[in-house]
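Handout for the seminar on molecular recognition.
Each group receives one record of this type.
Step one: identify the two inputs.
Step two: read the structure output and locate the region that could contact C2E.
Step three: write two sentences on what you found, then compare them with the reference statements printed after the record.
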Amino acid sequence: MSSSESSTEAIAASAVAPQRELVASRVLLGMIASGASLPDVLGALCRTIEAQAPGALCAVLLILDERIHVAAAPSLPEAYSQAIDRLPIGPQGGSCGFAAYSGRQVIVEDIATHPAWITCAPITLEHGLRACWSTPILDTSGRAIATFAVYYRDCRRPSQRELDLVNGATDLVSIVIERDRSAAALRDSEASYRALVETAPLGIFVLTRDRFVYSNAALARMLGAASVNELIGRSIVGHVQRDSRPSLAERLAHTSKRGTTTRAEVKLLRMNGAEFEAELIATPMSFAGAHSIQCMVSDISERKRTEKRINYLAHYDDRTGLPNRNLFIDRLSQALGHAQRSGKAVALLYLDLDRFKTLNDTLGHAAGDVLLRAAGARLTECVRAHDTVARLGGDEFALILADLAQAEHAEMVIAKIFQAFERPFTIERRQLFVSTSLGIAAYPRDGATPELLLKHADIAMYQAKAAGKNTYRFYLPAMGMGLSESLALETDLPGILDRGELELHYQPQVESSTGQIIAVEALLRWQHPQRGELCPDAFIPLLEETGLIRSVSAWAVRRACSEARDWMDGEGRPLRLAINLSASQFKDPRLAELIEQIVVDTGFDAKRLEFEITEHTLMEDTAVTLDTLRALSRLGASISVDDFGTGYSSLSYLKRFSVQRLKIDRSFVAEINEKHDTTAIVEAIISLARSLYIEVVAEGVETTDQRDFLVSRGCALLQGYLFHAALPAAKMEALAASSPAAHVASMGVVTPLRPRSVQS
Ligand code: C2E
Ligand code: CA
Ligand code: CA
């Protein structure tokens, strides 16, 4: 710009100054808003001031690392800008260097004589510049981040108006730089979040009105899209399996309305229509100004497959594909409940194959398996579709015939069964004749619970065998006399506590990484005056039936807490104490209160208490169960799921109930390295539990093979006869206090020992 041009403009400018300043600011704001670069905005700002102050040549200098950086100087000679760029600040750094150094405004009327210009004067004067007023822009800590400079080609001081203009400009520069810095910081943090989201292994996407407006690469891969772009704009509806649509739509609507996060398990569809199970977590957000929902999705097909497989193994017999004992008992309870309401009868048929053991031993296990399958198939042919045929184990089968007008009607089916067994079985091209012995017990006349009916049908079957096999017997009460141990025991139960016949034994749990005992499980024993030591499976069902379980278990918790109170491991750390609670105890709404009282009375540290409850108890999921679990957690006790794998295993409920540990049922452990399927399941349980931060305890470890497998898969704790059986209190105390090396020796650890992590 030539000086004559600038003076004409200046006249126009002064006439309409306030208005022009406003327009100029608006232009500037427009540039800032449109994201113009910092030098462009500052350049425009300089020109705006120059237009209002005739003869002024403006510059904005940024201060970085104590040096001057020319950010904008649209009217200064290019060579001069280059000459002062990167000069250090200081008392002799010219007006700007000194202003930045001192943090004060520096007005130099004549560059030729001012001390701040001693070093820089020659080059400045060479470019015809005589005066320079510089104002620093300070950050919150008082350090200069920039200076705003006004040069003149003649010696002069600023008028009040010019000072006002300079100060106004300085404010503007400060705002512009500030905005630029925060935008840069935002860009940086956005860039790192974006990188995080884009490279996350989880599928992450944003929906606006059901359509994908953002997706990361993981989601595109999960849905089988060629690229993220293929997904953008598509509706999510096409990727949700038809049956999942209504519930998902409802959940998402709920999320938007309530502004909360929801979690859902849904079936999603890939581009090619293939279905997979997914867990979705949705949170409302605003995206590009629109109400949107941000979702994270993970593919849980593998977990679901494992759950299905565990459930299958828990309820079906792998060899014959028939229901197993667990499912059989379930179905029998259902049939009994139904019969109670309808007034009908239920018959339970219990049978085994005569001479099966001999056949199995002579022909081999493979042939034995074929025979079991064939026998199962024939039994299934004899009943109606809704009757149940189950294999209870070995060569034992059981059938439920429900909805009978009277028990004797079972005889028609029994006749069919014996007919079916008259035909030979073809096994390995041989014709084999196999007969069966069968016992029948009926509801309501022979019992009202599955356990009692099974027991009576079993007794009747032995009578059939005793009668020469290949025949059947209905249960008669006379058969039970002398045979039914449980009935006899039942009469001994009252007063069991007063007579001091109950005691607790303790079975250690060892840490797999060190072989050290870190916990014990309390197990009931009944020292029966005539029958000797009895295990809980023989009398706990009776305690439950008679209602004695409450007083016995209160006794057991109190006894365990006082006996284990002072036990320490070999290195002097207190042991954790696990106590079993049965389903019926759990239904007692005052259980937690009782336990709290015991903790207070005995002085046992509640943080070391652990309660083992079975998967079945957890699944009942009543309000009382939940309250009790919460109350126990509040006390500081931990919860462990016992017999894991024998119920309807669902890993999601473990999360819901905040369980700390799960115990793989010993039936699974027994089949490690024996059955490929079970081995894979155990492996999957351990790894899935780990991903949910749940510790795994393997129970019933009997062989070094099982131990090695479990150790190699990272199972945290081991319990079983391989290490220790359940021990009387005194022996347990002595064992716990002995040196840790003793535990290790008894474990025969094969893997190198790692130092034990600190237990809280
Ligand atoms: P559980 O909780 O599954 O306890 C483990 C059972 O496995 C114990 O049987 C234990 O002696 C046995 N065991 C330990 N190591 C091995 C092994 O290596 N191989 C095999 N085959 N078995 C092993 P126990 O003591 O007969 O207890 C049976 C069940 O009685 C327990 O099963 C538990 O459900 C119940 N129970 C025991 N004590 C109590 C109690 O105080 N209260 C309640 N409610 N139930 C109890
Ligand atoms: Ca247990
Ligand atoms: Ca168990």
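Reference statements: Confidence is low (pLDDT under 50) at residues 1-23, 742-760. Residues 308-481 form a domain with the Alpha-Beta Plaits fold (CATH 3.30.70.270).
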